[in-house]
Backbone:
């Protein structure tokens, strides 16, 4: 199961991509939320151990979430017969545009949001390559 979420080789179809993305967001989101809750309770109670464990759980959850998102995106791109290198602009392009937009024009922020939505919908709905391709 873990290799299904964390592996970078092979292809991933539309339905599997959508389902695994939802699953990862739920599981790692719960871990992040529990870690942040434990950290805040420990902070309020001046319990250094609980605060540290909570923050470490939250950091672990964020790392696991980012790794699984990257892995799922790379394998979905493989299904579209694209190299995993394209995951850099797929995942970070809208975010970088949003950062630039926040410093200059608010209209670009809307464009960044639309770009991110469009890329996400493309990954979910674009049909993969029929038969074998360069990635399997």
Residues:
């Amino acid at each position: 199961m873990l290799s299904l979420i964390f592996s970078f080789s092979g292809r991933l179809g539309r339905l599997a991509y959508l389902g695994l993305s939802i699953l990862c967001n739920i599981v790692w989101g719960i871990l992040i939320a529990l870690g942040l809750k434990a950290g805040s309770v420990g902070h309020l109670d001046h319990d250094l151990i609980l605060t540290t464990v909570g923050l470490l759980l939250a950091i672990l959850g964020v790392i696991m979430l980012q790794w699984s998102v990257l892995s799922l995106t790379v394998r979905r791109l493989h299904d579209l017969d694209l190299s995993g290198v394209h995951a850099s602009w797929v995942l970070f392009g809208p975010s970088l545009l949003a950062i630039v937009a926040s410093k200059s024009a608010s209209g670009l922020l809307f464009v960044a949001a639309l770009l991110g939505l469009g890329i996400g919908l493309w990954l979910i709905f674009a049909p993969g390559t029929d038969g074998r391709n360069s990635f399997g």
Notes: DSSP finds five helices and no strands in the chain. The CA atoms of residues 101 and 108 lie 5 Å apart. The two ends are 20 Å apart (CA to CA).
